[in-house]
Amino acid sequence: MSRSTGTTDDDVSVRMSAGLPGAHPRSPRLPAHLSRDGRDRLTGPLLGVAALAMGLMAGLFFAFDVSVMPGLARGDDRTYATAMRNINAVIDGSGPFALVFLGALAVTAWAAVRAFRKQQRPMGWWLLAAALCYLAVLALTMGINIPLNNRLADLGRPGPSTDYSVIADFKGTWETANIFRTLLCLIALSGIVRALLLHGRATPRPGNGSVSSQS
Known about the structure:
Elements: H1 9-18, H2 43-73, H3 77-92, H4 95-117, H5 121-153, H6 166-202
Helix pairs in contact: 2-4, 2-6, 4-5, 5-6
């Protein structure tokens, strides 16, 4: 029996067959981000994009840690400087890199704000921690890595240079900062994955806590 109308299921069937008003039970109006069974259609994909972007950044920094920088260190300073300047120039001019580099923070922060607004505080705190870790990555990049990249780019201008003292800073400061960027991205990724698990546990399944017009 429907509690809202007091009409039995048989009455509804009769009305449906006769085409009378009230034949179809009225469904509740759902928010735009919810599907008909009450599941959130936006948070899951948002978390997935955040995890993908953060994973790509962690992988990029990790590749520098274990292959690019050790490989460059096997050559002389001139080769090191030339190769690193070329790598930086390619990265600086890459649209996909810029999209992922900035998007990782934007999407993670957006997901955190949504979680807090929906009173999903445990998930929100994990996402906030992830966003703060990635903010630290940006701070390291802007404060250490990019200034050293600029010094390397200016090396020898306007003419050839034999002073490669900046390479020592790369082998020490730049590479150390990059290791921290890798670790911070991995911690941020762990926070996003934890938020995904919490979201999965809180998501109603069809036939189990789904929105229904009758009880």
